[in-house]
Amino acid sequence: EVQLVESGGDLVKPGGSLRLSCAASGFTLSDAWMSWVRQAPGKGLEWVGRIKSKSAGGTTHYAAPVKGRYTISRDDSKNTLYLQMNSLKIEDTAVYYCAREGGSYGGAFDIWGQGTVITVSS
Amino acid sequence: DIVMTQSPDSLAVSLGERATINCKSSQSVLYSSNSKNYLAWYQQKAGQPPKLLIYWASTRESGVPDRFSGSGSGTDFTLTISSLQAEDVAVYYCQQYYKTPPWTFGQGTKVEIK
Predict the structure, then answer these.
(1) Where would you tag: which of A15, A71, B32, B48 has the fewest CB atoms within 10 A of its CB?
(2) pLDDT tens figures, B67-84
(3) Is A102 helix (H, G, I), strand (E, B) or coil?
């Protein structure tokens, strides 16, 4: 079964750091371009950032609100994607999803994880 | 950045009736070199992650019922549910993935039963 499972969500104080993980199964993560998408409570979807496959250069892109604070990385040997979040702000509170950009779908996300909850509060 | 605007924000439709959701992009998402519109539609039910319904503006994802259809080109797009079923109650989002990030989503349209 093709699956993504996020972990690492927690309650963290403003200014703190957290690392999320996204474990992939049922497909070869090394071939995939992967994104993180978040959803604040009661709000819509917000793209956070993306990492290309290593064969495509492993390039990362970030949304403006997180650029310089968040870092996406991957360990294809562990079939795992990461999101390192530093200098967290209250407005970073959200459910964080990892999602696969399906190769034949362009940048459309064909597989999503169930999400992990980050709460930033003092 | 490309801004995606959906309308309406919510709609209530009777079972078996048609539901129509519109999505407008602030610039064209039609790539002339391959004539593809870089536009996707997602369904998100309460407490669940989004689910891909439509990509390339009009291509239905495998397993998606054929009552869901996408249309449009350039800057104006539509998601149509031809005969609303109870299980279609959800929030629907459009998303553009034109050329390079940032990818952007519409604000969402909530579909309910009248």
Answers:
(1) B32
(2) 999 999 999 999 999 999
(3) coil
